[in-house]
Model the fold of this input.
Amino acid sequence: MPPHYPPVMLVDGYNVIGVWQRLQAMRDAIGFESARSELIETMINFSAYHGYKTTLVFDAYNLETPGKTEKLTKHLKLYYTEHKQTADTYIEKVCGQFYRDPMRHLKRIIVVTSDRAQQLTAVGFGAEWMSALALQQEVEITFKSVKHRQKAQAQDTKKLLGNRIDLETKARLAKLRESLD
Done:
């Protein structure tokens, strides 16, 4: 049996923030840091649910700093590009490595951006492409599914005997349990 490789998702963070209306509003009202934090939290949950190995890529083009990776969870890491490197060039580099990987036929890489040139480049390297809006829809569908499942589990607990008997009977049962100890 061939080895299992979890899907890899590369997300152009600032591109997504610029497309999702709720993140745009947050960015404009409070600043980039709050929008970035909200996107990170969203992607932690989404990636864990789907089992993706996600890298959120943020440009640090104008900062004179080396590239930096922060592993936040088993499923999500952040990459801040190095000086004079864009998220696009980093994503292209990773896609190029994927293209040269002799095991790529067993792997899946998804690039999330609404940048048309980046889309064409990623697909040219054999990666899948997802627009920022398509990711937003996938996130919303996933969260609705999770809520629906949680609601169903909560309803199942209402069916337990302990949740259906009156307080007087519960008190009598508690007394009986105490006398058995």
